[in-house]
Amino acid sequence: MLRRIASHLYWTARNLERAEWRARLVDVNYHLLIETPPRGAEPWAPLLAIFGEREAFAEHYATADEDSVLDFFVLDLRNPNSIRNCIITARNNALSLRHYVSSELWIDLNTLYLTAQAWTPDLFRSPGVFAFFSDLRDSFYRLSGILQTTIPRDLAYDFMQIGMMLERAEDVARMLDVKYHFLLPRLEDVGGAVDLLQWAAVLRSASALEAYRKRYGNAIEIDKVVGILLFDASFPRSARFSLDQLMVSLSRIGGEGFSSSAEDSAKVSAYFPALNELDAALKSDRSTHALQSGLHQFLIQIQDGCAAIGDEVFGRYLRVD
Amino acid sequence: MAAIVLETSSATPVWAAYKSGEGVFDEMLDLARSERSGCQPTAKALFSMPPDWFAEISGRAQQMFRRMGVTFNVYGAADGTERIFPFDAIPRVIDADTWATLEAGLIQRVRALNMFVADVYGDGNILSDGIVPRDLVLGCPQFRRAAAGIKPPLGNFITVAGIDLVRGADGRFYVLEDNVRTPSGVSYVIENRLVMTRLMPDLMRSCRVRSVERYPADLLQCLIEQAPGGKPNPTIALLTPGPYNSAFFEHVFLSQQTGIELVEGQDLVCVDHKLYMKTVHGLHQVDVLYRRIDDDFADPLVFRSDSMLGVAGLTAVLRAGNASVANGLGTGIADDKAIYAFTPAMIRYYLFEEPILPIVETYLLRDREVREEVLAKLDRYVIKPTGASGGYGVVIGPKASEEELAQVRKLIIAEPANFIAQPVIQLSMHPTIVAAGSGSGAQTQIVPRHIDFRPFVLLGEKPKVLAGGLTRVALREGSLIVNSSQGGGSKDTWVLEN
Fold first, then answer.
1. Which residue in the set B256, B261, B266 is minimally distant from A320, CB to CB?
2. Which residue on chain B is closest to A96 by alpha carbon?
3. Based on the structure, what is the number of domains in chain A?
4. Is the dihedral of CA B347, B349, B353, B355 positive or negative?
5. pLDDT digits 0-9 by tens, B82-120
6. What's the topology of domain B363-423?
7. Spatial distance between the Cα atoms of B464 and B210, rounded to a whole number of angstroms
8. Topology given in CATH for the domain delimited by B105-174+211-351
9. What is the pLDDT of residue B80?
């Protein structure tokens, strides 16, 4: 497979995953603000902080009010990571992939692209924010269903998986960090109604609330939230799960025969030191350690690890020049 | 020739108003009346179809093309807008005898053009013998000094040729233009056929239409034969300018159909006079490059240095004989509009044969006497700039305004060598479905529209002609312009079995 094609596959999947997480976060934050009256003057500012986009936002907008932030996160073409731009980037990468991906995937992605081209701020009033994000979430579910059911498990699939899973691990860590940015909990609030609501919202934005309740019951506790979102190998949006998938795909690519063996896994370890490091940090017995040494620091470590893995993948497989 | 009015008593009302143009050849009516044409069964069947049927098959064809994603990009559209190439469901029929002549004529012509290119970049005999003026060749914008001395396998500079033919008022096919650089359109031939087999399977079977399905396999075979030193199992790649090129659909289509890798310039690299593509598992040597980009962009070391589409060092690789390209560099010398005037002489010179297919009389305006004669009756000629393609800059005398004529006169006088003149050819016409009116009042009508024809010729160890081709139709009333970017569409072309 050509490196350029691998790169298009990687970025198509990565941008779709990114757009989906952004949609989830904005959506959840929106509903959180309805349920818990904001304390500060700029209730949307934490969201900008999570993405490290305070400055980019301030370049174009005066205050972080709802209209501006929705515009910035969803529609703004000047924001390279707006949902609309992620969709455009995904589709433009897919333009060169029409002979590698199924026509169903192309047609659906192109349709989403055409829809996103036509978005206007009016959509947040009619059909309204809720309906807008609900439709958008459906679009992403449909795309991921098509991807899973129409792409053969070969190199093309693996490069898409790598893009998707790297983005997923990074975004779940980022999302968990929402609590750090949102409010450093005042002592009297911990375990209180607001705290609980916020943790529930975090879980909900990863579609993890129901899975959590089934496993742990009603009480929402921070170590369990961290457990399911970071260390749980069975939950499909956890960092651990994403990393496992990433390693499977990388060892298949390295193994040429598209079957992953212990030998291939060993090769992967040798080629991707940053991956090894993150793998060690996310072993299930490390969760207590992560909490004790500071969750925020740990989440930053995951995000940095993902960036480093991205560089390693780029250098080994995607670099064209 | 007077206009023909349809007299078939069995014809349905949708044909009632059909009247062919005056002084033009009508492909269906003229042929339907001729004894030997073999076109009667199709015509008869189509005459008796109810009006609704035409609307229905048009609708179904549209739907199929959209679903298959058969599109072309429109230049200048900011987002690389894709359009469906308009398709007319009434097929154009060519009988077996006529085809046999065309086929022989096309092979003869492409062989001679190929020998000409090889000669120009080789010994230059045709120039020394004064058959084609040396200064015309060396001064031609399509002449590539860098191609001199390159010896492609089999002596083939041309692997794929698309020859544009028109049918004059006399019913004869004339060569209007040769395309031996990167001719496109063959994917539409194959996709059009796929749609037609679903629209009118019974009629096709009863008419015994020849298949076009083998083209990708034949193309692949020719490319394999083009490998240096006859290397077995060569690696072949198709070089595309990328997804924003107007013919990208075709590049994707051909790479899928032949199973060869679709590459862009950035995927390639030349190392030690060898050509490689960059794969996730390292460099992989390429033996044959089917390139769909112009010479100008192929190698920034030799041609345009600002090109991002080609690969630096390609020319040196070809010179070293470590890869071949199809078509070769510099083939544009053979489809230049001024050189065209010498193509009958080439055929006689290289093959010792009389040309089977006539060309349109062509006057080189660099000759003073000829120029004065043409300038005196400018409104009777078609004036074409030699450097341009795609119909750009063409002035059709009888249709041009005083102003346009004055303008082109000035241009000719300033740079006479850049222009040729030809008599006006009346393109033949063909019944075509149009929707008159719109909305619920829309009515299906069948009207005559001008058409041309682009058959495709492959040169490998042996020449092969695709039994069919792209019939382009000018959908606007009276228009002679068949280009897809300017309101042109296409029809399936049925070449009949013997």
1. B266
2. B243
3. 2
4. positive
5. 667 789 999 999 999 999 999 999 999 999 999 999 999
6. Dna Ligase; domain 1 (3.30.1490)
7. 14
8. Rossmann fold (3.40.50)
9. 45
